[in-house]
Every structure is written in C-alpha cells, then in structure tokens.
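Give me the fold.
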Amino acid sequence: MKPRNMLLGLGIGGGLGLLLGRLAGGAPWLQWLTDNIAAPVGQVFLRLLFMLVVPLVFSALVSGIAELELRQLGRIGLRTLLYTVTVTAVAVIIGIGLVNVLRPGAGAPESLRAAAGASPSNAVVPANSSVKDVLVAMVPDNPVKAAAAGDMAGVIIFALVFGVSMAASTGPATPRLREVMQGLYEVMMTAIGGVMRVAPIGVGALLFVMTVRLGAGPLRQLAAYVGVTVLGLSLHLVVVYSLLLRVIGRASPWRFFRDVRPAMITAFSTSSSSATLPTALKVAEENLKLPPAVSRFVLTVGATLNQNGSALFEGVTVLFLAQFYGVELSVSQQVLVMGVAILSGVGAAGVPGSTLPVIAMLLVMLGIPTEGMALILGVDRLLDMCRTTVNVVGDLVAAVCLSPRAQES
C-alpha cells in the first residue's frame, strides 16, 4: 500500500462526505448511499482485519519467543528482556498519562455516539472489574473460547506460554512445529498486506459515512490526537532515551543522536524496523563503536521485541477513541490496555501497520465503536513513521546500555 493511495482515499472519502453532507444532508438518496454502499464497504474492511487478528498475533508471539531460545541467551538475554519490558512500560505510561491529562478525544458531539450504536456494555472486560479481577481473567481457562470471545489478553497469555514452552522443548518434532508457526505468521502477514492494499477504499468509505453524518466535527479531535501522539513519542525519544544513555549507558545523548542520524532517517522514511536493521547494525558498529556480539543480538531481537513507540501509540489510540465515543474506561481497563500494549510488543512485526490488528481487537474487548478505525487509519502513515523512528532509536539505546562497557562503568 502506497502512502499516497491512503491519502487519496482519505481525501476523496472525507471531502465527498463533507460536500454531500452540506449540499444534500438528509436527502433520501444520500441516506441510501451511506447505509447500503459506503457503510457495508467500510464494515467489510474492518471485518477482514478482525478475521486475521487472532492467528496473526498468536503466530507472531509464538514465533518471536521461540526464536529467542531462552535457555541459551544467558545474562545478556535476561538483561535485554528486563530492560525492554521496563522501558516499554514507561513509554505506555507516558502515552496513557498524556491522554488522561490532555483528553484529545473529549468534546465529540452526542450525535456521534448515537450514530455509532455501541456502548460500554458491549465490552468483553466490564468497566466495574477490579485490577485483581482483570489480572485473573487475563489467564484463560479455554484459549479457544478466549479467541472466539475476542479476549485478546487471553490469546496473548496463551501465546506467551506456548512460545516459552516451545523454546524450552527439545523434542524431535519441535523444530517442525516452529516452522509451522513461522509459516502461519508469514501467511497472515501476506493476508494483512492484501487487506491493507484495499485500505484506501475501506478508509474512504468509513470516513465518508462519518463526515456525511457528522460534518467536520471529528477533525478537531483528530488533530489533537496526532498532537498528543507526537508529543508522547517526542518525550520518550528525547527525555527517556537521554536519561537512559546518561545514567545507564554512561554516554553523551548529544553525540549519540548525532551518530544515529542515518538510522533515524531510514526508519522515518521506510516505517519499518526490519528494513532499517542493516543500517542500524552499521551505525552501531561503525559510529557507536559497540561490540558486534552485543549490538547484533540486541538490535536483531529489538526489531521485534523492543517496540517502545508502537506500544505508546497503541495506548494513546485506544484511550483517544474511548474518549471520542464517550466510553469511560475504568482504572482496571486502562491497566489492561497497558498490559496488552506491552505484551504485544514481544511479537510486533517490524513492518508498517503492524499495530493496527491489536488496536482493533482492544476496541472490541472494551466496547469502543470500531468505526473509529477510519480516523486513525487516515493519519496512521505519518504516525507510523514517527513511532518507527522511536522504535529503532530505542533499539540502539538498548544496545548502548547493555554493552559491556556500560555495565563496567
């Protein structure tokens, strides 16, 4: 999917919806066009995404963890895992905190909530659940039932257990099962790629329906959402990474950011951690002068495991859409969002748009209208470029902090 095609779909759908809504608002033919053509096309696009979520997330997590070969990683592997979970948690907390303080999605008209036809009562995780209840409910008693009910947390927990068990298994059939999981993941990524090729049509249809019904009202909240997301990513990139470099890595943040500019430019232009990996490896060894054994391991694993920017983006997006539609999330539900965002980073694919299936499933779990995907898909390309830059720089920061010279300082 080319960025200009998504922008074209966004512009045609939104512009046509605004124009017809202003010129022929309330006309029977426009209502028929909206209800019988545009809305079904948009819903089919969303359903295609939902259809692929469970097998994609499950295969990605299992394959990612199994490839780590946990028993053979040693101290550097354990340090990398602990570092990644901690820093990713900080990123998600920054994002969720900004959304709660600045409330970019607040102020949406009541007509939007009525048009959405969804309420918190549709949530898989009720708002009155305590943190304790949510933590217990995250462990599924039946993984198939959890997948059918849209319980994303249960799917992720089962995938983690499955992946760790596969990494620890030495049976003769285990390598073949790993190949099956990797094959399933590759097939799902191909399917997601196919769905994203028709995303301009689906996004255009969804935005057409929204603008016909609501006019330009949602655009103010959308601009605020982009601003809060970029603010959160910038704070994590500049403040958190600089502190980590100074305190743990014993390195100059100014010199670091100067040296990693080639990797940042590549990440921003490609929106892909995987595509940036060769450049990041070159920067780590030639510019940062890091030990190859450490930098290659940390950067290779980090392309999948250390997705700080993506985790922050997921937290901001889910809470923004909840505010946008007037769905009040309890503390326990926000803790669930944070947990799923952190866990999904373990198997997040280093390719453009890999966070969208997780966001879609979280919306279903929390009873947030899925029509909101039209809004974020319209600006996702820009935000994907920004969060990928944060992801790649985060991998390089991790390589500095986990290098032997940092540990000896």
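The radius of gyration is 21 Å.
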